[in-house]
Amino acid sequence: MSGLAAPITGDGVRADPMAEAHRAALKAACAEDLAIWDIFALNFGPEQFDASFDRIMALPWARFVLFDEAGDLIGMSSFLNIVEDRQLLEIGNTYYRPRFRGTGINHRIKDMMMRRAFECGYTRIEYRVDLRNLRSQAAMAKLGAAREGVMRKDRTTWTGHRRDTVLFSILKDEWPPAEAAR
User: Fold this and answer.
1) What is the pTM of this model?
2) Which residues are CB-contacts of 33 (< 8 A; sequence separation ≥ 6)?
3) Is 106 within 8 Å of 143 (Cβ atoms)?
4) What pLDDT, in 10s, does the model give residues 70-95?
5) CB within 8 A of 6, min separation 6: which ones?
6) Buried b (16+ CB within 10 A) or exposed e, 95-130
7) Is residue 3 part of a domain?
8) Which residues are CB-neighbours of 72 under 8 A, at least 6 positions away?
9) How many domains does the chain have?
10) Is-cis flag, bond preceding 7, omega within 30?
11) By residue range, what is the domain housing residue 85?
12) Residues with Cβ < 8 Å from 25, sequence gap 6 or more?
């Protein structure tokens, strides 16, 4: 996994390994959209941010804080559920500050992260989206990910909601899609 966790650069974006030094800036960024946390598995809103940050820092994930070319903090994302012997991983725990949504930034960040995963030998990338999160489902379709189905009552979120999860995937031999819409 060491190759996955190294800094990544892409088309006007970069991903730096998440560290304690990012805590305050990321906490402020996550506070820009309090309503979104209701459809996330973990709450990164102001009152729960520190506990959620500590929790993901303790997990065997490759976690990143995302920046644009001007150095403005975009948000966060991670490689998680990494299964090396099956050559698969998930890209998730992704949050973008409101002003970056709908700008094409998601495509650029996902391209950068998928490129890294495929270069590291992974052949399947999964995305797991709360069924209620229509914006993320549309983004996955725009990215060219295949919708594989719904895992019913897949997990319990921080609110106690039993979440239905939509599973999307992209395989190495399907990427990059021929002129996927940006």
Assistant:
1) 0.92
2) 97, 98
3) yes
4) 999 999 999 999 999 999 999 999 99
5) 17
6) bbbeebeeeebbbbbbbbbbebbbebebebbbbbbb
7) no
8) none
9) 1
10) no
11) 8-174
12) 65, 73
